[in-house]
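To the structural biology subgroup,

Please find below the input and predicted structure for GTP cyclohydrolase-2, which we are adding to the shared reference set this quarter. The sequence is reproduced verbatim from the submission form. If anyone notices a discrepancy with their own records, reply to this email rather than editing the shared folder directly, so we keep one authoritative version.
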Amino acid sequence: MSQARPADVHPAEITPLTEAQVRTAVTIPLRFSDGYTAPARVLTFTGLVDGAEHLLLAFGDAVNDDGEVTPGADVLIRMHSECLTGDVFGSERCDCGPQLREAAERLNDAGGLLLYLRQEGRGIGLYAKLDAYALQDAGLDTYDANTALGHGEDERDYTAAAQMLRAVGVDGIRLLTNNPDKAAQLSALGIDVVDVVRTGVHVTASNARYLQAKRDRTGHLLELPAA
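Predicted structure (tokenized):
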């Protein structure tokens, strides 16, 4: 299922991208907890604006026989923000782990790129995210918990992601996401988002309120079951 490109919700002026370069490329055979396996060509970078250790994982036909990352036109892209609790420990308070697993298979089938971005807790960090969980347990939603701690609702900036895409020769993409802000930021940074492809909805009893807040507060493209 896909959605037309959303309107730009980041009117702030964006400075031109500085150039980043690939520093290392290595193949890692991935195996997920359900047994799904896929090889990924994993790239690291120099020159990223935030200095963080973000990764690009290339799957399927996006890697040629010589191990070079060769994304085609309008390549399928997933930007996934790191979530230790969901990605590693399988927490059901969010949908991050299932989204990562889904993305790996869809990208492997289509020949696409996963940008694994070190933006824990929508950019506020792991400890602050856990502090926000405590506030959510007291009744706040995921966004109000962040602001109660003195943070923004969502502090993620995708400038480094756009640099990573440019470093491997990508201009036009199909973006695998339910979050319109990701498409809006990349478009403002000069990446042509030709389509937004929705991810699945991974709802559990523990994350239903969280997903509802994402839909109602920040316009995530989520079709949730009636309460």
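Summary notes: The first helix runs from residue 84 to 88. The radius of gyration is 17 Å.

Regards,
Lab coordination
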